[in-house]
Amino acid sequence: MNFLDNGFYNRRFDSIQLLRAAAAISVIFNHMAFIGKGAFGVDIFFCISGFIMMYVTETDTDYFFVKRLIRLAPLYYFMTAVTYIGVTAAPQLFDKTTADPLMLLKSIFFIPYTIGDTIQPIVRVGWTLNYEMFFYLIIWVSLKISKKYRGIIASLIIFVLVIAGSFYEGGNVIVRFFTDSIMTEFIYGILAYEIHRYAAAHYENMDISVRLPVFLLAVCSYALLWVVDYDKVFSYSCRAVIYGVPAFIIFNGIFVAGYGAKIPRVFVWLGDISYSMYLIHYFIVRLYNRYLCPDGICDGTALIGAVFAVFVTVCAGAVSYALFEKKLNTYLRKKILH
After folding, report:
1. Which residues of the chain have pLDDT under 50?
2. How far is residue 164's CA from residue 159's CA, in Å, rounded to a whole number?
């Protein structure tokens, strides 16, 4: 059965928005001094991205790469400009970022480079966008070769890159970055799409006796990521295994359990603004760490400050979503695509 005939397409997946909200909040917590855990939110994002890119290209492949640029670039470029101006005006507030025009250009064109010991653009959390844009490029190339087999082609390209990277011993930053095992997590999303496009016909009327165990499996997998220090337990494993596999389980569990279910509107809304929260939160949390939790100790001030920082991030994300992700994106799509 083709998934176009089973009600799978042309619908909103609120369960995925719930996952986006959880992933964004996880990353926010990861950057808070007294928590420092939740980086696996990125791995959930990458699984989601693999699924969504397959989903949206099933019936609409026109201007694919341009649409992705319109979707992600405006807010990212705005945050990059704000950060660059901030570094120029008050460099003492930034650790290792400098007002280097070459760094600015590389950030704009999603070219990886090192800041200190890490590979990050001017907007520190923007390193994930470098991966996203590269993945979009792979999908675009795969579409040009064969729309029908785009998932297989994209997965093979990523697989070859990761395998080649495991043997690479050079120091080229771009090669090391784009052959990292984390790229495999996009394949997880592609695989999830191929599973659910056919199986979704059975989800709509699924009994609670099935939904509940699947949901609990996803929740337990997510909880274990907070409780277990996977980096130490699996010290020699790659990120795509220790975080990517749980992210894959979480994605599938929530997707199946939440398919056709009514998700509380607040969680869906948080998922809607998750991209804005993700890009904006780092600056808010850095100020919080500097002034309200400078010693990284969890006390009353730190807890109240953390709640306030999350609140400010949500408010800023809501404003950004309205301005950039709705109004500006709509305007650009009308001007560029029509």
Report:
1. 1
2. 8
